[in-house]
């Protein structure tokens, strides 16, 4: 962790006023990324509702983001989603009750994996369509080329800064 005294500062805090602080907070890259994330997810979720899945919540998107057609373990799904195994278990139980997933045994292991059913594969297709539509609508002010540049820049930033959980103190937050 860096020593706060060694961090570069634009101006000395004594020269800041409330308007300067407000502007710095509004234009802080982390806040902007968070606001885009929340807004984008809300829009995509609204499109899922329009498509006939009104029972889907923001929490349910953790399952959509991590389920595999060919099967996945609950542990792997929860790790990729950044939520507890218990929370993922509850979400998967809802998906199972709706007929979107089923548990299938892995022969000779005693393990079971979560598999998408035919209805689950349909939901995944609708979900991908909702993501594409949300991208088009949410980023309507950006050209396709600008969206691709944004996607590349964010992917590059993630590759540069993404560290295993043990290096980041285990802190990982996902908005539900």
Features:
176 residues; mainly alpha; Arc Repressor Mutant, subunit A; 7 helices; elongated
Description:
The chain has helices at 18-27, 29-50, 61-66, 74-81, 85-97, 118-138, 144-161; strands at residues 101-105, 112-116. It is mainly α and 176 residues long. The protein has one domain (30-159): Winged helix-like DNA-binding domain superfamily/Winged helix DNA-binding domain (Arc Repressor Mutant, subunit A). The chain has a two-stranded antiparallel ribbon with strand order 1-2. Helix 2 crosses helix 6 and helix 4 (74-81) crosses helix 5. The chain is elongated.
Compact description:
The protein has 176 residues and is mainly alpha-helical.
User: What's the total helix number?
Assistant: 7
Number of strand segments: 2
CATH architecture: Orthogonal Bundle
SSE string, helices as H and strands as E: HHHHHEEHH
Low-pLDDT segments, ≥5 res: 164-172
Question: Could you tell me the strand content as a percent range?
Answer: 5-15%
- Average predicted confidence as pLDDT: 85
Give the topology:
Blueprint: H1 18-27, H2 29-50, H3 61-66, H4 74-81, H5 85-97, E1 101-105, E2 112-116, H6 118-138, H7 144-161
Antiparallel strand pairs: 1-2
Helix pairs in contact: 2-6, 4-5
């Amino acid at each position: 962790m860096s020593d706060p005294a060694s961090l570069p500062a634009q101006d000395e805090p004594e020269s800041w006023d409330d308007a300067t602080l407000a502007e710095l907070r509004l234009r802080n890259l982390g806040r902007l990324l968070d606001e885009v994330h929340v807004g984008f997810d809300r829009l995509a979720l609204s499109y899922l509702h329009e498509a006939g899945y009104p029972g889907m919540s923001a929490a349910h998107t953790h399952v959509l983001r991590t389920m595999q057609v060919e099967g996945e373990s609950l542990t792997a799904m929860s790790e990729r989603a950044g939520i507890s195994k218990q929370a993922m278990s509850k979400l998967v139980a809802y998906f199972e009750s709706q007929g979107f997933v089923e548990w299938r045994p892995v022969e000779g292991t005693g393990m079971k994996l979560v598999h998408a059913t035919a209805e689950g594969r349909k939901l995944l297709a609708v979900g991908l369509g909702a993501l594409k539509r949300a991208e088009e609508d949410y980023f309507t002010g950006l050209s396709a080329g600008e969206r691709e540049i944004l996607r590349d820049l964010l992917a590059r930033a993630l590759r540069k800064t993404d560290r295993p959980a043990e290096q980041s103190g285990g802190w990982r937050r996902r908005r539900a």
